[in-house]
Amino acid sequence: METEATKGSEAVAGRKKSPLFAVFFLVIGALIVLGIILIVQRRAQYQALANETELAAVPTVAVIHPEVESGEEDLVLPGTLNAYVESPIYARTNGYLKKWYYDIGSNVKKGDLLADIDTPEVDQELGQARADLNTAQANVQLSEITAARYSDLLKTDGVSKQEVDNAMGDLAAKRAMVQSAEANVRRLEDLESFKRIYAPFNGYITQRNIDIGTLINAGNGGTSQQLFYLAQTDPIRVYVNVPEAYAPSIRAGINAYLELTQYPGQKFQGKVVRSANAINLSTRTLLTEVDVPNAAGQLLPGGYAQVHLDVKVTGQRLQVPVNSLLFRSEGLRAVVVDANHHAHLQTLTIGRDYGVTLEVLNGLNADDWIVLNPPDSLNDGEEVHVKQVANPMAAPPPAQNAPARAGGNAAPVEKKP
Fold it and tell me: Where is the domain boundary, 293, 313, 333?
């Protein structure tokens, strides 16, 4: 039988074990709660990573509106200045350059002596030809005397008719030899006259490719054989390529003027004098010539100018930067983003080229959103994230929130915080 002392000791031991069990269960509960929290955090991290990965898989593009051009203005096209008459000057005889009289930049008149060529071989050939002519003329004189004597002797039957005929035939042959010798002398005299190089028209020397002692070969056997390059710059020609859409408005006599960056604010007046009357198949443009007076010599051949043609261009026309276009094998394309954030490759009809911008005649609307610097990997119908940026063709607009996704033509633009 348990005694009262034993029962009391067991009660004391039970009271001592109860706090231990309570602490143990509290620790176990805390660990379980901590594990649940860690699992939830890890799952949230995985979900955030998956969302970020999915978001990164959709490209983000910068979008702008096309710029609307003014309603009515002159037709402005780039052009290259050309001399009205220009010609390379070659030698027509062989020899060595004896002296030149005009250098680059010299203004020469028609008939001015440009250079002298020393032609010893031609001189000797001419001397020989003249000696041959003298010989032939002496033979003709002798044949004339002989033929005259035989003709007189024939009257007295002193010679036969055959001998007279032989003498007359010899005289005709000797006269033909004289004519041949005279032609050879004239040829060599003309060839020797080419030792002096004259200016064929008024103009400026733009190139001088020879110096004293240079070996000169006749003809244009290469660029090294070119002696001078002569250009007439008053008036000056300007060739422009007019897009096919404006070709019907081009005709001879319409006014035009040039603007050059080196002469700001100055206009050089001219007129359209002719056009090719045919569209170039490769560029789809009409070659047009504008002549501009240049008495002061301000316009230099080879220069660049903006040509303003007095052809009023009306209707809404758009401009886009060149870095908003894709050059695909099927042609020029712009990437347009619709209200549902899907990209579409839009075919364009291009007008004038302004250098950093292009005129669009067909294919875009003023309220379209086009992608700036579109990646080559962008496909038609692909979903994109969009971000509105400042239009590089216009002044920076006041700060404003881009419109959210909406129906119709509303811009599908999202602003980053």
Answer: 313
Query: Which tens digit of pLDDT belongs to each residue from 352-386?
Result: 777 788 888 777 887 888 888 887 777 777 778 77
Structural domain range at position 156:
120-194
Q: What is the pTM of this model?
A: 0.52
The dihedral of CA 89, 94, 96, 98: what is its sign?
negative
Quote the CA–CA distance of 204 and 114 in Å, as a whole number: 12
User: How far apart (Å, rounded) are the C-alpha atoms in residues 82 and 270?
Assistant: 14
Residues 116/196, Cβ–Cβ less than 8 Å: yes
d(CA 172, CA 174): 5
CATH code at 388? 2.40.420.20
What SS3 state is found at 245? helix
Q: Measured between alpha carbons, how far is 254 from 197 in angstroms, rounded to an integer?
A: 40
Which residue shows structure tokens 């290469």? 222
Question: What is the spatial distance between Cα 230 and Cα 249, in angstroms, rounded to a whole number?
Answer: 35
Which helix (H) or strand (E) element contains residue 362? Answer: strand 357-362
Q: What is the pLDDT of residues 83-107, one digit of tens each?
A: 888 888 888 888 888 889 988 888 8
Domain count, the chain: 3
Residues 308 and 326 in one domain: no
